[in-house]
Amino acid sequence: MEGNETTLQTMSPANDPASRAQVWAREVTARIRSKMAWVSEKNRDKIPYTTDENGSYDDRSDPERSWRIDDGLNWWTNGFWGGMMWLLYQDTKQESYARIARISEERMDRCFSDFYGLHHDVGFMFVPTAVADYRLTGNPSSRKRALHAANLLAGRFNPAGRFIRAWNDLEDGDTRGWAIIDCMFNLSLLYWAWEETHDPRFRHIAMMHADTVMQHFIRPDGSVNHIVEFDPETGEMVKALGGQGYGEGSSWSRGQGWALYGFMISYIHTGKQEYLDTAKKVAHYCMACIPENGLIPVDFRQPAQPAYEDSCGACVIAGGLLELAAHVPAPEQSIYRNAALRILRAIDEKRADWTENCDAIVLNCSASYHADRHHFTMTYADYFFIEAIYKLTGTGRLLW
Predict the structure, then answer these.
(1) Closest CA to 176 of 192, 202, 157, 153
(2) DSSP 8-state code for residue 233
(3) What is the DSSP string of 138-188?
(4) Which residues are within 8 A (CB) of 289 and not within 5 positions of it... i.e. 6 or more apart?
(5) How many CB atoms are located within 10 Å of the residue 363 CB?
(6) Quick one: DSSP state of residue 354?
(7) pLDDT 10s digits, 206-265
(8) In sequence order, which ranges of the chain are alpha helices (DSSP H)?
C-alpha cells in the first residue's frame, strides 16, 4: 500500500513537471494581465520602444524625436507594441486592446509615403500589426497595408545572390550586398502574402533567402553569423561581419534567436525538412550555451567581464525553443520545452518588473555588445516574453 501511495503521489499533477509549468505560466499570465491593463491605457497614443529614467515609455511616433529617417516612426520595432495588444486581445477578448493596436497600425501608414526609412524590417513592423489585425478581425484596410509591405520586402530581393537586402545605405558604408540573420523573421510577411494571394513569387523569394542563410550564415557548430556581405552584382559571398555581437566569428545571442525561431517560421509555412533540421542545430548550440543562472549574455562568446546580458535575446530564443517543441515527436518535446522554461523562469524571477514603477516588464536588454548603453528595457522583449508565456498556456495563435 505504501508503495502504491508513493507511486500515486509521484504521478499526481502537483508533481508532474508539465503541470507545474502550466500552473506557473497561468500565474505569470495573471501578472501580465494586471500590468498591461494600466500600461496599455497609459501609453495608448504612443508607439513605445524603451523607458526613460522615470520608468515611462518613450514615443517613437513623435516626429520631433527623430534624428535620422529610419528612426522615429520608421523605427524597426514599431510593430511590437501593436503586437502585444493583439496578444492581449486574444487572451482577454477585450476590444480596448484592438483599438489601441490600430492606433499604431494606422499611424504607420505615413511610413509608406515617406518610403526612404523603410527596409527589410517591414516584416517586424507590419506582421504583428496589419497582418495580425487582418487574421484576427478580417479588417480589409489591414490586408491592403500588409500586402503593400510584402511587395516592398519582395522588391529588396537580389536574384544574383538569392538574398533580401537588409538596410539601405548607411552613413558609414555601402550596404547593397548586406544580408542579416534578423530577416529570417521578416520572411513571415512573404509567407503570409503567398498564402493570402496564392502568388508563388512571395514563397519563392522567402525560401531562396532562407536557403542562402542556411548556406552562408549557419556555421557547422550551430552558431550564427549576424551579417554576411555579398557582391551585389555577382552574388558571391565576400565576408561575414561581427555586427551586433562581440566580433567576427562570435555568437550574438539575439541573432541565434532570430535564426532558431526564424527557421521554425519557414518550416511551419513550407514543411521543408531542412528548415526544421537547421532550427534544431541552432537550438542545440543555444542550449549548450545557457548559463547556470539562465540569464543570457549579449554574445555567447563574449569575455566573462563585463557581464553584459540581453534579456530580449533570451525571450526570442525561448519562443523559438517552444515553437520547436510543438513540431517534434513527443520524446523530443521536453528537451526544448525545459530549456525554454529555464530561460523564462529566470526572466520572471530575476529580470522582470511587475510594479507600477516601470511601464516595461523585461529588464536588462542590450541592443549590441559594443553599444554605449546596456541593460535597459525594450518593447519587443516584452512582446516575446508575453508571447512565450501564451505558448505555454495555449492562448491565441502564432502571429508569425
Answers:
(1) 157
(2) T
(3) --HHHHHHHHHHHHHHHTTEETTTTEE--S--BTTB--TTEEETTHHHHHH
(4) 251, 253, 300
(5) 19
(6) -
(7) 999 999 999 999 999 999 999 999 999 999 999 999 999 999 999 999 999 999 999 999
(8) 2-11, 17-42, 80-92, 95-107, 109-114, 122-126, 132-137, 140-154, 183-197, 200-216, 253-270, 273-289, 311-325, 330-350, 379-393
